[in-house]
Specification:
elongated, D-Maltodextrin-Binding Protein, domain 2, six-stranded mixed sheet
Length: about 210
C-alpha cells in the first residue's frame, strides 16, 4: 500500500535519539516515507503527513508511550523490559538487534566470583532477574554512562551491557564472559491509543512489513 493511500490524521510516534533513530528512518525511506534529518527539532513530520514524530531519549521512550503522549514507539526489547510498562507489541524489526552480555576484564579470574556477582550496568532489572533465576546473588551498581569503565577503574569486576561488534569491549581490555540474551527492536503501542486508532495503526504496520 502506498503512503498516499494511508495519509490522514498523523499517527504520533516516539523514536529514540541516535543509531536506532537513523535505522528507523532508513526503514521508512525504503518504503517511500521520508523524514528530513532534524537539526535541533525534537518534533518532525514525514513527507506524506502520516506521522508526527517525537525524538526522545531512549530510556524515556516507554514513558511517553505509556502516558499516551506518543501513541506508538520504536525501541529495543531491553528498554521495554526495564520500563515494566504494559504495551501492545505490534511488529518486530530486522534491524537493531544486539546481544546482552556479561563481560569482565581480560585478566579477570571469573571462577573466583562464580557464587556472587558484583555488576555495573544500565539494565538493573534485567540483570537482577536473570541471575536470580539462576540462584546467583548479585550486587548491582546502576550506571547511566559508559559502563566499560567500571572494571577498568575497579568499581565492579563485571558489567552487563549491550554488545554489537565487541570493539568497544576490546578497546577497553574487556572480554565477553557469557551472552545472556538477544534483544530485538519492536514497534509498540499504547493500548488505549491502539483501541481508538486500530484501523490506521494496522494499516501502518502492514505498510512497514512490505518490502521496498
Amino acid at each position: 500500500m502506498s503512503p498516499e493511500r494511508m495519509a490522514g490524521h498523523p499517527l504520533s510516534l516516539a523514536l529514540p535519539k541516535g543509531r536506532l533513530f537513523n535505522q528507523a528512518l532508513e526503514h521508512f525511506a525504503a518504503r517511500g516515507l521520508c523524514v528530513s534529518p532534524p537539526d535541533r527539532e525534537l518534533i518532525v513530520t514525514d513527507n506524506k503527513g502520516m506521522l508526527r514524530i517525537f525524538i526522545v531519549k531512549n530510556s524515556d521512550l516507554p514513558v511517553y508511550v505509556s502516558h499516551g503522549i506518543a501513541g506508538l514507539g520504536i525501541c529495543g526489547s531491553d528498554v521495554l523490559y526495564e520500563s515494566g510498562g504494559v504495551f501492545f507489541e505490534l511488529l518486530e524489526f530486522s534491524f537493531g538487534s544486539a546481544r546482552m552480555c556479561l563481560a569482565a576484564r581480560e585478566d579477570h579470574d571469573q571462577d573466583a566470583a562464580i557464587k556472587h556477582l558484583k555488576v555495573a550496568t544500565k539494565f538493573p532489572v534485567f540483570t537482577r532477574n536473570f541471575f536470580n533465576r539462576r540462584g546467583i546473588p548479585v550486587e548491582i551498581i546502576k550506571l547511566n554512562g559508559s559502563v566499560e569503565l567500571a572494571p577498568v577503574l575497579g568499581l565492579a569486576p563485571y558489567i552487563v551491557d549491550l554488545v554489537e561488534t565487541g570493539s568497544t569491549l576490546k578497546a577497553n581490555g574487556l572480554k565477553i564472559v557469557e551472552e545472556l540474551e538477544n534483544t530485538r527492536v519492536k514497534l509498540i503501542a499504547n493500548p488505549a491509543y491502539y483501541k481508538v486508532h486500530y484501523g490506521e495503526v494496522d494499516t501502518f504496520v502492514g505498510f512497514l512489513k512490505e518490502r521496498a
